[in-house]
Design a protein that fits this description.
Order of helices and strands: HHHHHHHHHHHHHHHHH
Radius of gyration: 27 Å
Number of strands: 0
Largest sheet: none
Strand content: under 5%
Length: 288
């Protein structure tokens, strides 16, 4: 060891290191350090919502450590946030190849398939996530939504109920169940479930919007307007909420407010029924 420390000939020292395997160890350690550094930077950008930068660093982390399943998952989530669902699916698939028992990876890939309306593939992945983790309430909720999109309403209801049984604070299950109750014209049950979803997640604009629709169907126009207004407050680009609020104002014969919301909905790209506009002109006594 003393000879190695005192060696002045760099080439001789390199040969000694090679013969002991130390260079290989140092090289691998350096790769791991770089991978960890890239991974940490990727997470920092990811948490700020700066997905392009996050993707760049997760890519570098994967290049230095191709078995970093977590980097694939983070990059998949970033791709999904950018609506690049095929790339997300590819990364989730790679993570599953590395760790076939990762329920979260199946769940995430299921979400990406759902976004592509590939409901059978999504259900298959939710099935796998639930098989690995039978207490995954969100997987039941999402499987319920996939069944709903396929028109299998009883299976959807069953999954929503199971999600709520596992986690009574699973807001998406209440929201999904509310949609089913509304379709069956069980309005009070629908309102109850939308209200529960809102209590759990007060920033869920779809719950306010849908509850507003139920209140409107029941002729409770002031409550409907309040919910549409809250949905718009959370998401000012919700053209449907503006238009439905316009319809509700029209029922109340508040035509000035009706026209304001119609114009706002149109500015957001909403295609207004010409028949409704004709009736509104006649009722309000104005052209637009």
């Amino acid at each position: 060891m003393l000879v190695m420390i005192r060696a002045r000939n760099k080439e001789a020292f390199r040969k000694v290191l090679l013969s002991s395997g130390m260079v290989v160890c140092l090289f691998l350690t350096g790769c791991r350090d770089k991978s960890v550094d890239h991974h940490s930077r990727g997470i920092a950008y990811f948490e700020k919502g700066q997905y392009e930068q996050a993707i760049s660093y997760f890519t570098k982390s994967i290049e230095t450590d191709p078995k970093n399943a977590e980097a694939y998952i983070y990059r998949a989530i970033a791709y999904k946030a950018k609506s690049e669902y095929d790339l997300a699916i590819s990364d989730y698939t790679k993570a599953i190849e590395i760790n076939p028992k990762d329920a979260g990876a199946y769940y995430g890939r299921g979400l990406a398939y759902s976004k592509k309306s590939q409901h059978n593939q999504a259900i298959s992945d939710y099935n796998k996530a639930i098989e690995i983790n039978p207490k995954d309430a969100k997987a039941y909720s999402c499987r319920g939504a996939a069944y709903y999109d396929k028109g299998k309403y009883e299976l959807a209801m069953s999954n929503y109920n199971k999600a709520i049984e596992i986690d009574p604070r699973e807001s998406l299950a209440y929201f999904g169940r509310g949609i089913l109750y509304k379709a069956k014209e069980e309005y009070d049950l629908a309102i109850s479930d939308y209200t529960k979803a809102i209590e759990i997640d007060p920033r869920l604009p779809e719950a306010y919007y849908n509850r507003g629709n139920v209140y409107s169907a029941k002729g409770q126009y002031d409550l409907a307007i309040s919910d549409y207004s809250k949905a718009i407050e959370i998401n000012p680009t919700n053209a449907g909420a503006y238009f439905n609020r316009a319809l509700t104002y029209c029922h109340k014969e508040e035509y000035e407010k009706t026209w304001e919301d119609v114009h706002k909905a149109q500015s957001l790209g909403f295609q207004t029924d010409p028949g409704f506009l004709k009736d509104l002109r006649e009722a309000s006594g104005r052209e637009k």
